[in-house]
Amino acid sequence: MEPILKTENLCKVYRSGKVELAALRDVSIEVLPGEFISIMGPSGCGKSTLLHVIGGLAQATTGRVLLDGNDLTQMSDAARTLLRRHKVGFIFQRFNLLPTLDAHHNIALAQHIHGNGFDPHRFDAVVELLGLKERLHHKPSELSGGEQQRVAIARAIISEPKIVLADEPTGNLDTKSSESVLALLRQLNRDLGQTIVMITHNPEAATYGNRVLHMRDGMVVDNLPGH
Amino acid sequence: MIGHLVLRNAVHRPVRTAITVIAVAIEVTLVIIVVGLTSGLLLDTAKRTEGVGADIMVQPPSASVFMAFSGAPMPISIGKKLAQLEYVQAVAPVLVQFNSVNGLDLVYGIQPDTFRQVSNGFVFEAGRDLEDANDILVDDVYARAKKVQVGQMLHVLEHDFHVAGIIEHGKGARLFVLMSTLQEMSGARDKASIFFLKCDRSDHAAAAIDEVTQLLPRYEVRPLKDYMSQITSSSVPGLDVFINVMIGIAVGIGFLVTFLSMYTTIIERTREIGVLKSLGASKGYIVEIILSESSVLCLGGVVVGIGLSYVVRVALLRIFPALSILITVRWMCLAGLIALLGGLLGAGYPAWLASRKDPVEALAYE
């Protein structure tokens, strides 16, 4: 089976004047379709940078990133944006919902950007799956952390991306909400075959994935099976 | 969806929205009122000149159609020659002076008899006709504006006149004195600024114009039937420049306010822009949102501005009843378009900046 995501000797160097910081060093990973990968490591080890590069939000310095057969490192910003629109869903630690829109419109916004217009069947199915029916007309400020993250998950999957990239999705949640969100992600993976790459510093959260990658100082140092 | 997002953003920041809308409204009001004032002044002058009732107006060579700038270079004896023309029934010489004391007004120096023959005379609301050298007639609009009554003394052209009568407005100027008095005051003895001609029949006006042109080939001979169409802003030296400068200032206001408003908006919403980019929004999509927001605010300002123009008009006319302010649909649309263009230009740079934000940095913005 061809991997949905593959990086080859990926490097990312940040330069500030004469100072260089290697955030990623020779990272080579593969993610197969339907896998749920957790990436763990201490702060500053390059987890978020890896997520940004494989999601097309940032450019690699050297190396290759192949996402669903597309080489991101050879693409312009516009082309990566287009790819991200159709193939990647993001979930953030701080939810990052638009505060002026209610839950309904936050989710529908992703469909609008996707360009296929509002699909009520898909919308209803995702809302049902994530248990958001009663909360659709509430703004983010009126939702709990767990509810906000569920809205963010709905937004990430509404356009059926090839891969979901989750950056510490439980970082701002209490234990109960965290478990709920992680269970949802597992359900998406197991029942719908959604490929997920999740960053976490929580070892317990990491076990929800099929596989755990450990990073340190910009490198992948370990590759272990998950739960 | 973009419309919904734009409206929600506008409602979410009511103070910023209100300030931007008010600034654009002021811009629109400024344009409409300035143009309205100048158009109103010109139209009012033209209407009153047409209201004299003459068929033809004779002015010296190269005279401005706007009579206030004509001076008095024609010998009054020309009137006798004009009266002898076949199709000319009556000739009224008029000396025009521009009064800038206690307001801006034209003063007509007339010969009551000849002026009556051309204009069919004044309609008096109070008092009597000009008899004495220091008599002055004022029209009802002037009388209401300046609270003038018959018998009062009125200081005009650095001279004290006795208000002999109040007449119905619409016959040329608002103030009338005896021609001999005005000639004496202005050192233009036996001179006139204009000759108003009445034809024996109105359909003889063209033939009469030919006659006058043959008699006085270098003089300006104008049919009064289309006088209004001849009076434009370019008839008054510098007026076009004044209007354009005021429009430029108004556009500048709108541009700057919209620029600042949109610039602070994109700073405040940096993380939102990062989120949109993470969802796959293109640069064009981001620009569309910012420009749409600017357009909505400008349109709101245009609507408020048009309403405000009418309010300002009512207020100005209450304070200065003699003013004429013409608000036209054409200039409402133009003012709106100017405001919209200024707003889009003002939002252009912030929109461009927003589209180029690095998504990773934007997402990390606090």
What this model shows, in words?
The complex is a heterodimer of chains A (227) and B (366). Chain A is α/β, with parallel strands linked by helices and 227 residues long. In chain A, 33% of the residues lie in helices and 28% in strands. Chain A has helices spanning 47-54, 77-87, 103-114, 120-129, 145-157, 175-192, 203-206, and strands spanning 5-16, 19-27, 30-31, 36-40, 62-67, 70-71, 88-91, 163-167, 195-199, 211-216, 219-225. In chain A, the strands form two sheets. Chain A has a six-stranded mixed sheet with strand order 7-8-9-4-10-11. In chain A, strands 1, 2, 3, 5 and 6 form a five-stranded antiparallel sheet that branches. In chain A, helix 5 runs parallel beside helix 6. Chain A starts with a strand and ends with a strand. Chain B is of the alpha+beta class and 366 residues long. In chain B, 55% of the residues lie in helices and 17% in strands. Chain B is built from 13 helices and twelve strands. In chain B, the strands form two sheets. In chain B, strands 1, 3, 4, 5, 6, 7, 8, 9, 11 and 12 form a ten-stranded mixed sheet that branches. In chain B, strand 7 and strand 8 (159-167) form a beta hairpin. The longest helix of chain B has 37 residues, at 14-50. The A-B interface holds A 52, 55, 57-58, 78, 81-82, 84-86, 88, 90, 92, 96-101, 105, 108-110, 112-114, 118, 155 and B 1-2, 4-5, 8-9, 11-12, 271-272, 274-283, 285, 359-360, 363.
